[in-house]
């Protein structure tokens, strides 16, 4: 029994370290630059204040801009809710599927990853939507996730998006683009 104690203590220390990392919710411009699709400095040189300001016009404008999407993803990570955006993006990709053979496999993968109860990245949708989606996936079509995707889009738009616009990530980014002009 004694030889196990150092192993247990080591695991507990490792767990404390991992929990400590999880509890550290950073919300800054630097967190955003780490996940930019290009090299951060080059990306920020390409991003104008006007473009970044337009992200506040509508949620869909934000989602349609690759740097806006990256900034929003970084923000959602600080809130531990990036699964919502990942699900929405998976649905957008799913709708582009042209192969009937791939449709069923993709639908099943998305369902198991995001919709099913206890899914690894389960999104927050109501029981009726979950069950409708479960039935839809049995005979998948390009629209089988439409209701669930709509609910998640609405949740992000009404809940996360306003917080993003007030976040340090967004305000720091705007300041950075404006400083470049000075």
TrEMBL record:
SUPFAM superfamilies: Regulator of G-protein signaling, RGS (SSF48097). Pfam families: RGS. Residues 58-174 form the RGS domain. GO terms for cellular component: dendrite; nucleus; perikaryon; plasma membrane. It comes from the Eukaryota. Signal peptide: none annotated. InterPro entries: RGS (IPR016137), RGS_RGS8 (IPR034949), RGS_sf (IPR036305), RGS_subdom1/3 (IPR024066), RGS_subdomain_2 (IPR044926). GO terms for biological process: negative regulation of signal transduction. Keywords: Cell membrane, Cell projection, Membrane, Nucleus, Signal transduction inhibitor. Gene3D superfamilies: 1.10.196.10, Regulator of G-protein Signalling 4, domain 2. Its main location: membrane. It is a peripheral membrane protein. It is found in: Cell membrane; Cell projection, Dendrite; Nucleus; Perikaryon. This is Regulator of G-protein signaling 8. It comes from Pachyramphus minor.
């Amino acid at each position: 029994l004694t030889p196990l104690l150092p192993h247990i203590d080591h695991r507990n220390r490792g767990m404390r370290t991992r929990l400590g990392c999880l509890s550290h919710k950073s919300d800054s411009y630097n967190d955003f630059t780490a996940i930019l699709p290009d090299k951060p400095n080059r990306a920020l040189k390409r991003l104008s204040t006007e473009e970044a300001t337009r992200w506040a016009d509508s949620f869909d404008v934000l989602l349609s801009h690759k740097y806006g999407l990256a900034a929003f993803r970084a923000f959602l990570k600080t809130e531990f809710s990036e699964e919502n955006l990942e699900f929405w993006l998976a649905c957008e990709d799913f709708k582009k599927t042209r192969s009937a053979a791939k449709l069923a496999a993709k639908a099943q993968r998305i369902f198991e990853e995001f919709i099913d109860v206890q899914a690894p990245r389960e999104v927050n949708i109501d029981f009726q939507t979950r069950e409708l989606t479960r039935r839809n996936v049995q005979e998948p079509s390009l629209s089988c996730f439409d209701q669930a995707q709509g609910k998640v889009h609405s949740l992000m738009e009404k809940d996360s998006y306003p917080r993003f616009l007030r976040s340090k990530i967004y305000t720091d980014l705007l300041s950075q683009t404006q400083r470049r002009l000075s």
